[in-house]
Amino acid sequence: MRRHRSAKIIATLGPSSATASMIEKLFVAGVDAFRLNFSHGTHGEHKERYTIIRELEKKTGRPISIIMDLQGPKLRIGTFQAGPVALTDGQDFCLDNDPTPGDHTRVFLPHPEIFKAVGPGAALLLDDGKVRLSVQSATPECITTKVVTPGLLSNMKGLNVPTVPLALSPMTPKDRIDLVFGLELGVDWVALSFVQQPADILEARELIKGRAGIISKLEKPQAIEHLEEIVQLSDAVMVARGDLGVEMPPEEVPSIQKRIIRCCRNAGRPVVVATQMLDSMVKSPTPTRAEASDVATAVYDGADAVMLSAESASGDYPVDSVEIMNRIITQVEQDPFYRTLQNTTLPEPTPTTADAITAAARQIATTLDLAAIVTFTTTGTTTFKAARERPEAPILAITPETRTARKLALVWGVHAVSGREAHSFAEVVSDACTIAKREDFAKSKDRIVVTAGIPFQIAGSTNSLRIAEIE
Length: 471
Description:
Number of strands: 21
CATH superfamily of the largest domain: Phosphoenolpyruvate-binding domains
Shape: elongated
Oligomer: single chain
Number of helices: 17
Radius of gyration: 24 Å
CATH architecture of the largest domain: Alpha-Beta Barrel
Helix content: 25-40%
CATH class of the largest domain: Alpha Beta
Number of domains: 3
Largest sheet: 8 strands, parallel, barrel
């Protein structure tokens, strides 16, 4: 089940992809990681899908990443007494703390944090930006606004506050319950929604305590203001273009996406590009040319993974969506310009032994045209550094930790396998040669470059490199 591409594919599971047979079809078509979206579904449904994936692992002998995506705070208005209301251009409209159903002049807003945060001139976006309000004044009882973009407004529509930081934790009571459940299941990654500042990640890290990697979803403009700090504190990052595209002008999103990918690449953090990548395939067997170009752009930019949401969770063509995404990635990576881009955007290694070793491994593999770069790792740190280099040679990661192998399934260019715990560098090299041949990365007389850290089981201790010939 070796993938002959470097960028990875994440598929969201849902009603269209809930059975064992469908999940296996998605994996065979090219999925490397599965997303369990805790905004939908019951704990029982998520547990059933988790179990199916782990059984598939046993069947195929391949580690598979499982991501739990926490819902985070959902800002919504209340209800209307007589059904949807039509807001007209320039009219006054009040969002207040009165829980009774609203009308064309007012509606209940059950979020006191917003009353405290907004002031005159602040923008409020309703129903994914379809209706836009400008705040005229705010008291603890009522936010008076003027309608800037008119439209129809119905019960419980979502609300975005793009320009103002809100005193809201990304971890709601529901998220805390879901997190305990997911960690007990054994998820590999936790995707954290509504990240606004570095403190949000520290709060989540205190709860997770190293039992899973943290993927910070960048969907708030406030997060971009703290981009470098957030990237450094995260284990991975997701460009969540849904809310980001609502809260920022759409013309700014492409450059923000590139900035995030570049920042993650420099820091050696995996980065996922998500939301509406092949959205028309929810109902169509083929994507638009613009969507195919969107996926390709993310790959050219150096993203570790691209993600399917509704396309695989509730769409009519989940397997087709994975297959076309797989073909787009493969086509891009065969383009000589892709390799030129990866080489010209290569980050400068930081002045550490581990970075020097992994940078040298990349250069040696290129100069000598080696079959593979083999990283022996316990925590995954060595392999993350190797992937940061975006080498031409495939990366074979050998780890005695199943959890580490599963996490690495999300990382660019990495083929992770479980191996025994080594006690000497000679054992590491011997195992690397055996596994490289077994996993079809090398044949007799081929050469590989092997990196490891001695003493073993210390994160970031990569300090040894050897070129070995396969017998």
